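General statements about sequence and structure are easier to judge against a single worked case. In the encoding step, the backbone of a single protein was reduced to a row of integers, each denoting a local shape. The record that follows shows the chain in one-letter code together with its fold in token form.
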Amino acid sequence: MTKKIKIHDGIIGGLILFSAVMAWAVHPMFIGLAGLTAAIMISSAFTGFCPVHFMVDKLVKP
């Protein structure tokens, strides 16, 4: 597993965990962030484009 994939997976996992905690602690509307993250993950499986991976690829050198 490359460094970029680890960073990507950490960001996505952090977003999902953050939205779950915020939905539990603050307001249920934060669950929409988890839904949006999931929708982007599903669409990237078909299109091959993931905005998070694009940013990580531009910011992190090999």
Summary: The chain has a mean pLDDT of 94.
